[in-house]
What we know:
By secondary structure, this protein is an alpha+beta fold. About 20% of the residues lie in helices and about 30% in strands. The chain has one helix spanning about 30-40, and strands spanning about 5-10, 20, 45-50. The protein has a 3-stranded antiparallel beta sheet with strand order 2-1-3, with helices on one face. A hairpin with a 5-residue loop joins β1 and β2 (about 20). The longest helix has 12 residues, at about 30-40. The termini are far apart.
Amino acid sequence: MGADGTRICVRCNDCSFERVVDPDDGVQPADVLVEHGQRTGHTLSIDRIEDEED
């Protein structure tokens, strides 16, 4: 997920944590999910952010 250039939003279901992962950052959404989940024990969800075209 995220390898196709799509930005991903990692959002915690238990607190206000939210992070947008851009493919150019070199960070994988799974890394963010695991790090926050292990540190807090919270459950997270992942959503694709679609680019809006005008």
